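Proteins fold reproducibly. Next comes an illustrative record:
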Amino acid sequence: MKKTQEFDHNASLEALVETGMLRLNSLHPGGLALTRELAELCYIQKGAKVLDVASGTGETACFFAERFAARAYGVDRSDQMIRRATAQAQARGLKVQFSKADAARLPFADGEFDAVTCECTLCFLEKAPVLNEMVRVVRPGGCIGIHDLCWQESAPNNLKLVLAEIEGEKPETLEGWGRLLGDAGLVQIKAIDKSTAMSRWMQDSKRQLGLLGQLQLAFRVIRRWGLSGLWKVLQSERVFSSKFLGYGIVIGTRP
């Protein structure tokens, strides 16, 4: 998770979401349908104690509590996100606990959770330390589940550099994500290609905004970051819309 202060100075698609300039029905490809699939793959059920890392607005943790009657927790480094998530849980009458924490230093005991998830965020965190912490706090036999951006094997380096520079995101290939989970000590690893959700998400996001909304958003970007900021956002959008960037679910079990 990037620090909120960074978004005051750097134009990016992530900045538009973080600052509230861009409000989407779904903050990640696949929406809650993909969250539900992740939950089912991680055997999240009634009474399960579940942690969502980089919980953002809290939608995922609230969904686990509301849909599966799980005991849900969330952590995020952003004060703003913690406030939004807490307010959302309270508005929905849910007992979900959100706390500010570094994903690489989780404030929980070893083996405390039945499942730990991270949605569309691990690509711009320190992957190995965060995965190691996720594994540490899940019980033996418990599941770690992520879904995230995935480069195609044929992705050119210039697109990778653009995404890293503007968004701070460094996706793996689907197979690469699987190897990372294996390196963290997980077994029974399953990687599922969900790239069709990526293109659908981009199309739905543009449809949700409409032409007028896109023009208004462009004006707000220029007013805040100038024409150079708009150029960065358009470059980032080009990468997200390209055939070289896909999406996937990856899960594993702590032995």
In short: Confidence is low (pLDDT under 50) at residues 1-8. The longest strand covers residues 138-151.
